[in-house]
Write a structure and sequence with these properties.
The chain has 256 residues and is of the alpha/beta class. 43% of the residues lie in helices and 21% in strands. The protein has a domain of 166 residues: Vaccinia Virus protein VP39 (Rossmann fold, 3-Layer(aba) Sandwich). Helix 3 packs parallel to helix 4 and helix 6 crosses helix 9.
């Protein structure tokens, strides 16, 4: 039983720095990029910025235990440093599986490869630096988009979901985690403010919160849960619903 519980503890990355990227005023903020500076502090940043992140990662491992099928592929699209990939690989009990982890940020990919190599397992992992819009998938029993779709242009979102559906085998699963917006303005404002309270409680200053938000404004475009579900239905998925939510962050499952 203890071993089973240990397998649900999220992977911790060593030699990471505290996120202080926006602690001092920046004259020209520009748009957000996943550069070397972000990659260096990303584990701290995501834990302090994304409510429920650790739970989502560990539960992705639980879903892998249920849905990964033998002789199949698993894709982690927008893998960043490989947290979801590692959680999946720890839970795979099926033979002849392979994980493809993809990110378009070279600093993320380079660090991801080191993290993958640090945790030995039988399931092979290939880490690729590429735009996920260009990835050709096949024979997939599981695909993960963990806070990735929101960084694609709206025109590309449906296309990527269509490609995923076509690549999944019967009973294959897509895990789609995103920051959500809400059509009800009162609810949207409440959850927006609670997210900022979450950041303050984790030690971020008003300056840090404001500067990061401004950099993300033109890069991370959020959708409502209803919009996500409609896109998934349009792609062909019949079984779609939200399985995790904390404030305006959450995750949807779509089963073929």
């Amino acid at each position: 039983m203890i071993a089973e519980l240990d397998s649900l503890v999220p992977i911790t990355f060593m030699h990471t720095k505290k996120d202080q990227l926006f602690s001092a005023p920046i004259d020209k903020l520009g748009d957000w990029t996943f550069d070397e500076k972000v990659a260096e502090v990303f584990p701290d940043m995501v834990q302090r910025s994304v409510p429920g992140y650790s739970n989502i990662i560990s539960m992705i491992g639980m879903l892998a235990d249920r849905f990964v099928q033998p002789n199949s592929m698993i894709y982690d699209l927008g893998c960043s440093l490989g947290a979801a990939t590692l959680a999946i690989r720890r839970q795979i009990k099926q033979d002849n599986c392979r994980i493809i982890a993809v990110d378009n940020s070279l600093p993320m990919v380079e660090r991801c490869k080191k993290h993958i190599d640090a945790y030995k397992a039988t399931t092979p992992v290939e880490v690729i630096c590429e735009d996920i819009c260009n990835i050709k998938m096949q024979n997939a029993s599981m695909v993960v988009l963990n806070f990735t779709l929101q960084f694609l242009t709206p025109d590309n979102r449906q296309r990527v979901l269509n490609n995923i559906y076509q690549a999944l085998i019967p009973n294959g699963i897509l895990v789609l985690s995103e920051k959500f917006s809400f059509s009800d303005r009162t609810v949207d404002e409440l959850l927006f403010n609670m997210h900022h309270d979450f950041k303050r409680a984790n030690g971020y200053s008003e300056l840090e919160i404001s500067q990061k938000r401004n950099m993300l404004e033109n890069v991370m475009l959020t959708d409502t849960i209803e919009t996500h579900k409609q896109r998934l239905n349009n792609a062909g998925f019949e079984h779609v619903d939200t399985w995790f939510q904390c404030f305006n962050f959450g995750s949807i499952i779509a089963i073929k």
